[in-house]
Specification:
Blueprint (H helix, E strand, L loop, with lengths): L3 E12 L2 E12 L3 E5 L6 H8 L7 E6 L2 E2 L2 E4 L2 E4 L2 H8 L2 E4 L11 H11 L5 H14 L15 H14 L4 E5 L7 H16 L4 E4 L3 H7 L2 E6 L2 E6 L1 H4 L6 H9 L4
Parallel strand pairs: 3-10, 3-11, 8-9, 9-10
Antiparallel strand pairs: 1-2, 1-4, 4-5, 6-7, 11-12
């Protein structure tokens, strides 16, 4: 039986008086690939950002590998963990964003090496070897010494993915990683993610690429207005949605 990797219990997140997440519950097994779909503003990205504490949350629990993320209870009082502890926990996950966030003055290899040297205290020659391995894995071995400005958007996103994965995270988070790309570049990035899924990497993806979600996911979560409205096997959900809301969403999406 698979091991539970991620457990979210009653997750609540507010921005002022606006409640963005309204009690989300979710469990993920190790090796699962879960796509999170839903219309803009449904809470998908916010949920991802709570998992690695890029966003604070006001209620509920997030456990990664059985470890409580972000907060601790002491004498009945909920307290945010120290910045040092949160930084350690953040390194348990890797995240690729819509924007590539590469350092423009560093080559592809140096962008990938940075966290290995600074955070993991890896010797530079060892970090370079790891960087080259992952750049090769995403099809960019020949671009290791190119700067971001010399790379296409798709290539930059693949460097960003290599950088996140090189840190050896327990869970990989992808937030709409193709949305800033020209249509002809989307396929090369999705191909990399498909390869990682085939390797058994645990991944949580916010995506608007419905066909991709259908083909790659072991499970799909449909969010609507801050709650999980429906979840299950993509083959069943996309063909026979149980809720009217998902049926409406699929009609207006790129899935056909």
């Amino acid at each position: 039986m698979s091991k539970v990797l991620l457990e979210i219990q009653g997750l609540h997140k507010q921005y002022g008086t606006v409640e963005v997440l309204k009690g989300v519950d979710c469990t993920m097994q190790q090796g699962e690939v879960i796509s999170i779909i839903g219309s803009s503003g449904s809470g998908k990205t916010t949920m991802l950002r709570c998992i690695n504490m890029l966003e604070d949350f006001q209620g509920g629990h997030i456990l990664l590998d059985g470890e409580e993320i972000g907060y601790e209870q002491s004498g009945g009082v909920r307290r945010r963990k120290s910045e040092k502890e949160i930084a350690r926990q953040r390194a348990l996950t890797g995240m690729a964003f819509q924007q590539f966030n590469l350092f423009p003055h560093m080559t592809a290899a140096r962008n990938v090496m940075l966290g290995l040297v600074k955070v993991k205290k890896m010797p530079r020659d060892e970090a370079r070897a790891v960087a080259e391995k992952w750049l090769d894995r995403v099809g960019l071995a020949s671009r290791a010494d190119h700067y971001p400005g010399q790379l296409s958007g798709g290539q930059q996103q693949r460097v960003a993915i290599a950088r996140a994965i090189a840190m050896n995270p327990r869970l990989m988070l992808f937030d709409e990683v193709t949305s800033a790309l020209d249509p002809e570049l989307v396929g090369e990035v999705l191909q990399v993610i498909k390869g990682l899924a085939a390797d058994g990497m645990s991944m949580l993806l916010v995506t608007h690429e419905m066909r991709f979600a259908y083909e790659v996911s072991s499970r799909v979560i449909f969010m609507n207005k801050g709650v999980i409205c429906e979840e299950g096997d993509p083959k069943q959900m996309f063909v026979q949605p149980k809720t009217q809301r998902l049926a409406e969403f699929l009609k207006t999406s790129s899935f056909n």
